């Protein structure tokens, strides 16, 4: 797990997606990251820092949309339909900084569509856990 206090010595982590296996840059300028700082973070934290101009553009557009439309508020609970595809995984990565910045709770949910004839959500299935 990345120590945010330590990371703040290098950059502004509010514009980064922090995973266990990598750091993804959402906005290089606002995060105050240069190539040199990214290399230093990789060396000092032992974790790759990934930058993609495409991801940065999507992150910026999403940030403007969320801000303009007041979509996310502090302590919100956000449910993301997780298919395992690129779109839903990208959305989870884009939302991660909001979790840290605003304390939102993000839940990823998958749905079994009964493809193999098994309905895991029926009462007759004893593997279902009710919460």
UniProtKB/TrEMBL annotation:
The keyword Transferase applies. Keywords: Transferase. The keyword Transferase applies. Pfam families: ATP_bind_3. GO terms for cellular component: cytosolic tRNA wobble base thiouridylase complex. It comes from the Archaea. Residues 77-115 form the tRNA(Ile)-lysidine/2-thiocytidine synthase N-terminal domain. GO terms for molecular function: transferase activity; tRNA binding. GO terms for biological process: tRNA wobble position uridine thiolation. This is tRNA(Ile)-lysidine/2-thiocytidine synthase N-terminal domain-containing protein.
């Amino acid at each position: 797990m990345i120590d945010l206090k330590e990371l703040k010595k290098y950059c502004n982590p509010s514009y980064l997606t922090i995973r266990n296996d990598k750091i993804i840059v959402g906005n290089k300028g606002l995060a105050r990251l240069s190539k040199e700082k990214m290399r230093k973070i990789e060396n000092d934290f032992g974790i790759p820092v990934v930058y993609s101009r495409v991801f940065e553009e999507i992150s910026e557009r999403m940030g403007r949309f969320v801000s303009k439309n007041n979509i996310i508020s502090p302590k919100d609970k956000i449910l993301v339909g997780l298919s395992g595809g690129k779109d839903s995984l990208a959305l989870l990565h884009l939302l991660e900084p909001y979790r840290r910045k605003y304390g939102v709770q993000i839940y990823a949910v998958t749905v079994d569509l009964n493809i193999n004839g098994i309905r895991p959500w029926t009462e007759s299935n004893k593997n279902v856990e009710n919460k």
